[in-house]
Structure formats: C-alpha cells, structure tokens
Specification:
52 residues; elongated
C-alpha cells in the first residue's frame, strides 16, 4: 500500500508540473514548487520503504 501511495504522489507531482508548464507557468510558479515537493515526498517514502 505504501508503494502504491508513494507512486501516486510522484505521479501527482509530475501532473502538477506538466499542467503548470502547459498553462505558461514560470520556474517559480506554485504548481511547479508543489509538483517538485510531491515528487520528493513520494520518492523519499518509496526509498524508505524499499530500504526496509
């Protein structure tokens, strides 16, 4: 379950970034920042789960 939610968080991050860029957002747009944070949190959760 943790792997699925972590993968979903990474996917949500990618979608946020793609959507923000497609709407013309800049490098410091809120969607890009949240997308990167979602991807980092999902990757960290996945990394910690796989190391266990």
């Amino acid at each position: 379950m943790t792997r699925a939610l972590s993968s979903l968080m990474i996917l949500i991050g990618v979608v946020l970034i793609v959507r923000t860029v497609s709407l013309g957002g800049g490098a410091l747009a809120v969607g890009i920042i949240f997308g990167v944070l979602f991807m980092a949190a999902g990757a960290a959760r996945l990394f910690m789960e796989l190391r266990r």
